[in-house]
Design brief:
This protein has four helices and no strands. It has 110 residues and is mostly helical. The longest helix is centred in the N-terminal third of the chain and has 22 residues.
Amino acid sequence: MSLGFVQRRFMSSALQKWAYSISGFNKLGLMRDDCLDETADVKEALRRLPQHEVDARNYRILRAVQLSIQKDILPKDQWTKLEEDRLYLTPIVEQVVKEREEREEWEKNY
């Protein structure tokens, strides 16, 4: 039974690495959260983000745009690896969404 769990876990991580590597954004040095659509919730989360994180995000996005214009990618040693990628914005976005939904519920009932 534990062998099946290990096999599923390995396949899951192998599939995750494969999907991450073919996504393409990592070849431009971007992280997953750099690719979020800038909705009102994401903009509020960006406002709450520490300035050094916003600056790093803006740098990665500008570098990716420049590479895209040049129809180029980063050298393979500079690609963002799955292990290095972290969700720096998603927890804040989730908190903003939760607060917005709570506020909408409050306004609807009172």
